[in-house]
Specification:
The complex is a heterodimer of chains A (about 110) and B (about 120). Chain A is an all-beta fold and about 110 residues long. Chain A is about 0% helix and about 45% strand. Classes of the chains: A mainly beta (about 110), B mainly beta (about 120).
Chain lengths: ~110, ~120
């Protein structure tokens, strides 16, 4: 079955750059979207259509895509960026949507 | 202001039923597809169901197929999820989310741009 794979956890030093990746066959067809989820809160859309950001999302968040891999890059990570990040895309082999398992980001 | 407000969650015994609702505000509901997404305690996001803007297409994840029914009432700007045959594995926080889609070059893209705060479902005896 189709799936999106993310590393469970990633850490980054304050002010440094971190890349969170998402792999899956569906990403060869559809762009990923990325969501930030803080504890006890609803997911928040931060990147869509490879590298577009909704209004209000800082430009330190950016997206990219190559082959079956989508990436979310945070340039100059802030303490406030500590969250779980999920990728998502339409499933290219069915009428369903997919979420990655989530990556917990720790800012050291 | 665009907003989604879920309701209808609660505690139910295995095999029971619940009906979730999602009231929508601040946009033309009948122009957008809508999703239900859930999150089991301590786990990740799981897509549950989608309904097209006009209600003519409905899709569900395999684990709820035949038990959950997504529907919408465009006259009342409301999305619903009828959940039957509930099991403990259905326990979680249920979010509604607005569907967005477009094309960039030749590549289509989909995303969920607005989310509600969720309503909690607990299935336990």
């Amino acid at each position: 079955s189709s799936e999106l794979t993310q590393d469970p956890a990633v850490s980054v030093a304050l002010g440094q750059t971190v890349r969170i990746t998402c792999q899956g066959d569906s990403l060869r067809i559809y762009y990923a979207s990325w969501y930030q989820q803080r504890p006890g809160q609803a997911p928040l859309l931060i990147v869509y259509a490879r590298n577009s950001r909704p209004s209000g999302i800082p430009d330190r968040f950016s997206g990219s895509s190559s082959g079956n891999t989508a990436s979310l890059t945070i340039t100059g990570a802030q303490a406030d960026d500590e969250s779980v990040y999920y990728c998502s895309s339409r499933d290219s082999s069915s009428d369903k949507w997919l979420f990655g398992g989530g990556t917990r980001l720790t800012v050291l | 202001q665009v907003d989604l407000v879920e309701s209808g969650g609660g505690v139910v015994q295995p095999g029971g039923s619940l009906r979730l609702s999602c009231a929508t505000f601040g946009f033309t509901f009948s122009d957008y597809g809508m999703h239900w997404v859930r999150q089991a305690p301590g786990r990740g996001l799981e897509w549950v169901a989608f309904v097209k803007y006009d209600g003519t297409r409905k899709y569900t994840t395999d684990s709820v197929q035949g038990r959950f029914i997504i529907s919408r009432d465009n006259s009342r700007n409301t999305l619903s999820l009828q959940m039957n045959g509930l099991t403990p594995e259905d326990t979680g926080l249920y979010f509604c989310a607005r569907d967005m889609r477009a094309v960039m070059g030749l590549s289509p893209y989909y995303y969920m741009d607005v989310w509600g705060k969720g309503t909690t479902v607990v299935v336990s005896s």
